[in-house]
Amino acid sequence: MNREPRSGFASRVPGLLLCLFVFSIPWEKSVQMPGIATLSHLFGILAFATAAVVAQRRGSLRPPNLALGLAAVFMLWSALTYFWSMDRQATAMRAATLVELLAMVWLIWDTCRDSLLQTRLMQAYIWGAVVASAGAGLRFFHGQQTYYLRYAAAGFDPNDFGLILALSIPLALYLALRTGSLMRWCYRVAVLVVLCALLLTGSRTALVAAFVAFGFALWTWRTADRAQRTSGALLFLFLLLGLYRFAPVATRQRLATVTTELTRGTLHNRTMIWKAGLKVLRRHPVLGIGAGAYPEAVRPTLGTPGVPGHQYVAHNTFLSVLVECGAIGFAAYALMLGTLAMYVWTLPPAERALWAIMLAVWAVGVSTLTWEHYKPSWLIVALIMTEWGRPWRAAGFRK
Question: SS3 for 33?
């Protein structure tokens, strides 16, 4: 099994800062710093700067992979849409965000070269989700609802927050499967804490995503030991009972409408927003209307929401990319996702199960959320790249 050589403490600093960065993602909006958008932004800047120094001392960069190249193409095209955008200010802001996200993906790809750091990053996200869940729990006990009797960590929309939490479930179940010590029970407790907070969000999207997340336990059922099977079944049962017993009454009533909304409802007016976007797409099918310009493009049809400071975003990542970046930008984005799926297919069974379920949870969640410029989306992209590019693959090593 080949490993990258270590060159002392200095070479490990980017990895440490990267772990702090990933740890802060699930609760980043809860802590604001003057002059800096979020604490994770600060950790990201420091990690990138130290990684650049280490790379300069090393005298080389890790060769890019196909998915990373396609991500760069998508982000470059998104920036180019500025020249015909319906909302140039929004496009400039989106382009700047995507540049930062591309830097994050490169940072993880170049820094995370062994299984230990890969595991540390997954652990960092899980414990970050636990911290965020604790924050949401405290807000619930103090009656600090985000809106309409729904709860989330400070600064978060409940739907976004719910999906952030749901993404931590397969990671924790995977590490519980792979760990042969008492730590496996810590990961299972982490899932329990996350499920409690997820139920408080009242997010129907997050609820469906959480059920999909337990697909990992089903996928790995045959290879798991009795403790893993039992704990997975009990945690799933807790989620199911939460719909009828454990969650607050208002949350249970909201979550009970999932089936109705999917079959006969408007998904909280999302179908109306999608129809307005498709109408815009028919007029700009190839080049799009500019990254981040969806709210401005649908304004003539939908107007503005009654809530001050709010606007109509696509509420569907795939539609958002298609309308804003046109067929060209969507092709780059779809090819990147297809390449990631190909990477996942080549992995060993347990890792294939993990990342396939992670992609499925993400896909379900972003079908009603606009997440093409959110850190968790690109963190998944980066982690799949690094899993695929780990040294044990080149050496033919299989766990």
Answer: strand
